[in-house]
């Protein structure tokens, strides 16, 4: 649906900040996803970016970002995705990240590994930050922290990218296109599916401060596992 609407005129509205927007495609995508998921699991709870939380009658919950990378989508830049995670009793069991413009679907099932378009994927073998391609995102509420971390990582890594979709950044980290990713100020729907992809592909996920990752932890550090200590220390030294 997103791909079919990509070249159509868009209705764009700002949320709390100028840099945080929503389009008619976000809302249409979310409505379609929720309708189909509830048809299959009518007792499940829902947590979705645009419509928020709705309670359920079971331990199941779907965590949905109907369009991660809205600004990219609104400008015709094809780095965007849909992210859906299935949670049972507070534990993410299944994660899917679908990038329609790229023709890629990433799937992780807890304990069963991670796939891209049906083929197994794994994190990269890179063992030094100096050889690494890293990625990040900038939360509009704290550009100063973002800038310090970006500068420190850029001085140490081979390169750093900022592409504007945390869920797709995590999927790319899971398959070794990126060697590591960090970001602040994220919501559960940004990371629920992608974090499972990284761990099931053999990587490591935590908060940037080194604590255990939680969906409401507000920061994430995800990488191939070989860079985790060094990258975390570098970001914390930069003031993260």
- The shape is globular
- Could you tell me the CATH topology label of the largest domain: Fructose-1,6-Bisphosphatase, Chain A, domain 1
Please tell me the overall pLDDT: 91
What structural class results from the helix and strand content? alpha+beta
Oligomer: single chain
CATH class of the largest domain: Alpha Beta
Strands ordered across the widest β-sheet = 4-3-5-6-7-8-9-10
Largest sheet: 8 strands, mixed
The helix/strand order is HEEHEEEHEEEEEEHEHEHEEH
% residues in beta strands:
25-35%
In CATH terms, what is the architecture of the largest domain? 2-Layer Sandwich
Distance between the termini: 38 Å
CATH homologous superfamily placement of the largest domain: Fructose-1,6-Bisphosphatase, subunit A, domain 1
| Percent range of helical residues | 25-40%
InterPro entries: IMPase, Inositol_monoP_metal-BS, Inositol_monophosphatase-like, Inositol_monophosphatase_CS, Inositol_monophosphatase_SuhB
EC number: 3.1.3.25
Enzyme class: hydrolase
Protein name: inositol-phosphate phosphatase
Overall description:
The protein has 240 residues and is an alpha+beta fold. The protein is 30% helix and 30% strand. It has two domains: 2-120, Fructose-1,6-Bisphosphatase, Chain A, domain 1 (2-Layer Sandwich); 129-237, D-Maltodextrin-Binding Protein, domain 2 (3-Layer(aba) Sandwich), CATH 3.40.190.80. The protein is globular and about 50 Å long.
Describe the secondary structure blueprint for this structure.
Layout: H1 2-5, E1 12-14, E2 21-23, H2 24-40, E3 45-48, E4 52-54, E5 60-68, H3 70-74, E6 81-88, E7 91-99, E8 104-109, E9 113-116, E10 119-120, E11 133-136, H4 143-156, E12 159-161, H5 166-174, E13 180-184, H6 188-200, E14 204-206, E15 219-223, H7 228-237
Parallel strand pairs: 3-5, 11-12, 11-13
Antiparallel strand pairs: 1-2, 3-4, 5-6, 6-7, 7-8, 8-9, 9-10, 13-15, 14-15
Helix pairs in contact: 4-7, 5-6
């Amino acid at each position: 649906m997103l791909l079919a609407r990509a070249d159509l005129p868009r209705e764009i509205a700002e949320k709390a900040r100028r840099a945080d927007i929503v389009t008619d495609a976000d809302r249409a995508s979310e409505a379609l996803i929720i309708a189909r998921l509830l048809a299959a699991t009518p007792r499940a709870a829902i947590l979705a970016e645009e419509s928020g939380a709705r309670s359920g009658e079971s331990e199941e919950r779907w965590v949905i970002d109907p369009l991660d990378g809205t600004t990219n989508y609104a400008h015709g830049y094809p780095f965007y995705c849909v992210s859906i995670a299935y949670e049972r009793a507070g534990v993410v069991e299944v994660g899917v990240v679908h990038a329609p413009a790229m023709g890629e679907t990433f799937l992780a099932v807890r304990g069963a590994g991670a796939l891209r378009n049906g083929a197994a994927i794994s994190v990269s073998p890179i063992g030094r930050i100096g050889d690494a391609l890293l990625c990040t995102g900038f939360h509009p509420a704290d550009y100063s922290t973002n800038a310090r971390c970006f500068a420190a990582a850029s001085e140490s890594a081979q390169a750093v990218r900022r592409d504007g979709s945390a869920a797709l950044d995590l999927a790319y980290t899971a398959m070794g296109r990126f060697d590591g990713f960090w970001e602040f100020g994220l919501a559960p729907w940004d990371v629920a599916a992608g974090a499972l992809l990284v761990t099931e592909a053999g990587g490591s996920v935590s908060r940037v401060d080194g604590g255990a990752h939680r969906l409401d932890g507000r920061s994430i550090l995800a990488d191939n596992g070989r860079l985790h200590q060094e990258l975390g220390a570098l970001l914390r030294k930069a003031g993260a």
